[in-house]
Design brief:
It is built from 2 helices and 5 strands. The chain is an alpha+beta fold. It has one domain. Strands 1, 2, 3, 4 and 5 form a 5-stranded antiparallel sheet that branches. A hairpin with a 4-residue loop joins strand 3 and strand 4. It is elongated, with a radius of gyration of 17 Å.
Amino acid sequence: MTAPSLRTISRDAREPVCHDLEALRVDGRAVGVRLLVRRAEDGMWRARLQYADGETEVTCETVEIFCAVTEQDLWQAVAGMGEHHLRDLFRSLSGSS
């Protein structure tokens, strides 16, 4: 009798994977931030930001504003934005002042 084979089910790298980032404080309230990362057909890593303000129930999302050759380069680009840029981007998308 043969042993059953162990198969690893790999996900499609083109499907976005959601990563929760540290929440932002905007005008005294917490805003959740997520990064949706995928590997495009051309082999490039692309990502967009998704914001969720639990207090006002405002949700908004960018287009794929991040693009890099490697996933590590993509994460470095995200880290390089800085909290103030992430906050200003949320304000511009949500219409907050």
